[in-house]
Amino acid sequence: MTSVQSDFILEVLPKDIYNKQLAEVNFYETFFAGCTIWANELEKIV
Length: 46
Known about the structure:
With 46 residues, the protein is α+β, with helices and mostly antiparallel strands. The chain is built from four helices and two strands.
């Protein structure tokens, strides 16, 4: 499966870490580890 992600999605991770939402942190870390394509050119997106 191919997943495409951007840095915008990563903004949720610090909030879950701060609030000690460990299930969500584990989910995001596992999900993002499997991403094969990243939208890195944020200045073109915004």
